[in-house]
Amino acid sequence: MVQVSTAAEDFPFYLDKEAFKQSVQRHLHTTYGTVESKANSLAWWKATCSAINELVFEGLTETHKKHSGIDTRAVHYLSLEFLMGRLTRNNLYNLGIFETARDALTELGQDIDTLCSEEPDMALGNGGLGRLAACFIDSLATLGYPAIGYGIHYEHGLFRQEFRDGHQIERPDSWRDYGNPWEICRPESIQKVPLYGYVETEFGPNGKMRKVWHPGEMIRGVPWDIPVVGFGGHTVNILRLWESRADDYFDWDVFNAGGYVDAQAEKARAEAISKVLYPNDETLAGKELRLTQQYFFCCCSLQDMLRRYKRRHDDFSHFAEQIVIQLNDTHPTIAIPELMRQLVDLEGLKWEEAWAISQQVFAYTNHTLLPEALEKWDVVLFEHVLPRHLEIIYEINHRFLDEVVAKKWPNDDQMKQRLSIIEEGNPRMVRMAYLGVVGCFKTNGVAYMHSELIKKELFPYFYELWPERFTNVTNGITPRRWLKACNPRLSALFDEAVGTHWPTDLTLLRQVVAKADDPKFQKRFMAIKHQNKQDLAKVILQLTGVEVSAEAIFDIQIKRLHEYKRQHLNMLHILTLYRRLLQDPDLDIQPRVFIFGAKAAPGYKLAKDIIFGINKIGERINADERIKGKIKVVFLPNYRVSLAEQMIPAGDLSEQISTAGKEASGTGNMKFALNGALTIGTMDGANVEIREEVGDENIFIFGLSADEVSSKLKAGYNSRDYYYNNPELKAILDWLDSDYFTPNQPGALASIKRSLLDGGDPFLCLADYESYICAQQAVDQAYRDKARWAKMAIINSASVGKFNSDRSIQDYVDTIWKLKSYPAIE
């Protein structure tokens, strides 16, 4: 792995306190036009960002000069999500000037935490996929690799979540209401995107056939660049996000004729493309918008790559040497036929030449085994929106089936049907994941177990065809944000224990394992955890009005709300404890606070019902004096990166309870472990590898294995068997039919019970219930032994160095991208 110096004297942008103060004051006066006595926290925050940007933009300029001067190979990371969170604190730490800025602002009468809280989260993602992308571009910059991230400049991001009588309510997340000091508009790099229309076949004078797409509509893609500061400040790469605008967005003649609304129609239609992350696709219009979104950012990004390549090259003979494109999940796979369109239709390359280039350029990361997430598009819709691309996909598929599949399995039409990019049926569908595998030189999963399941279950025949194309890159997290910045108390303890280089070499924390039995170190470690819990207790009180004790176990589950992640299994455990406490109020259990954070997709009714259920159950439990406060339940609204940064350092128990074989990797499990929480989890995703690192005795594993899950489902799983054979389970499920938690609304929670019984319990909650309850009892027993728990927590924190996103990126570089590191500022 590339070694990056992080010694204080080696940070290239050293700035003393007085210089930073003067810079902030200068920007307060000259950039924002106010004075110290009138400026509010928002103005102070923006002035602080402008002071930081003096260093950031200098680093960006130096990086651009270095990388363009050597015309280096670079990776282009295409992702529909980049869950960046807030950048102020992160940039200060990565530049090595956090303490300088904190002290300077204090002397100016400002609190750095207050100013940082003025920054809205960049809500450009939904969950793990987008947060992983953010960690990866951080690591690429930290390691000095030439890279650019490409995505969409969403106006509203996902949504801002509120609770009304326990129900999730979606509100616009307007993260740019007052501008974003970190982004720069680049109008000189605007691209035009064609949509709709028809394709014409033309023949030249020499009889050569040529396809011409006559689009029905043109959209402009306006790029906004967000600098990505690597730790140490040696390299500053960019994240380029595309905003959609109409090509001719205001019809003056129509306006003058009185058509005031019609004059703006094209503008509104075009801007809808970058309006919201993941519009509801239950309607045909929603599906069309999602497909348009994906094509829009891929088309802009590829035009941008070709524009920069053609500055220095007269032909495409070196294109695959200079450019590698990583497709982050299936969303950007439309980039494959789009590159073919640009090379064949616009640049005049022969099909064979263009396809040879394309297959050396693209690599595909698969993030899920769930069928609904492996995108398929109706051929009729595809032809309507992207008529030329459908033709290209047909040609790719035809050549693949006739030249590759037929050679491997001659005269086997069934195999052709299995592997075809076009799924026959009513309607016919384009399988985007298959397009990704066929069009890319590498396909990787994101944890060892997931990558093996890709080979065996998801793409077994593709693996048989091209075993050399499949590989694994286990996910990772950046320790800069997920320990150094979000947990400064623990970071300081680790600095003292192993030195200050661990943020770029997380394996150094292994030395701390030797201190796991030291009572003095245990006391300091757990005192930090307790302080973090006290901080979170204040946040909980502020957001929910619920008082919780930092003496209790903080049992946390934060991730997207989905049945396979099984928040409802966690809910069943809460109901079990509550019922036992009602039967015996003196039951000897460790006090516990169950803490949730999650958003449900607006169209996902059961997920929203589970949120409602947890909230209503929490209301009843929290107000029930009979149980003497032994358990409490809180669901924090509007889960996002900045809230996770407050929750993760405070966690005692990390809930990673997805159905085995369904979670690709997970990164929340890594963040919690790094911050000293113990994992309760199934043998799923990266839990398998975390167990290997921390040891069986320092993790709570329960439930069926992936093979056992598969066998049960194939044998005909009947969830009612568990319901009838376990009286306690039956009682708590029947509770959901009553109005106990929803007064005067009997059966308001019954949909959850129905999903587990009438719905067949597709993710085997009831099969794992008893094992889960036993594992939770083991947690209760372990927490009673304070020395044992402290030792386990320390070992977890010190043993997950493998899950550094720097290591993940180095794996990509070594096995897929083949890049060289060029730190811009030595």
From TrEMBL:
Cofactor(s) required, per the database record: pyridoxal 5'-phosphate
Keywords: Carbohydrate metabolism, Glycosyltransferase, Pyridoxal phosphate, Transferase
SUPFAM superfamilies in the cross-refs: UDP-Glycosyltransferase/glycogen phosphorylase
Domain of life per record: Bacteria
GO molecular function: 1,4-alpha-oligoglucan phosphorylase activity
Function description: Allosteric enzyme that catalyzes the rate-limiting step in glycogen catabolism, the phosphorolytic cleavage of glycogen to produce glucose-1-phosphate, and plays a central role in maintaining cellular and organismal glucose homeostasis. Phosphorylase is an important allosteric enzyme in carbohydrate metabolism. Enzymes from different sources differ in their regulatory mechanisms and in their natural substrates. However, all known phosphorylases share catalytic and structural properties.
Identification of the protein by name: Alpha-1,4 glucan phosphorylase
The species this protein was found in: Celerinatantimonas yamalensis
Source taxonomy: Bacteria, Pseudomonadati, Pseudomonadota, Gammaproteobacteria, Celerinatantimonadaceae
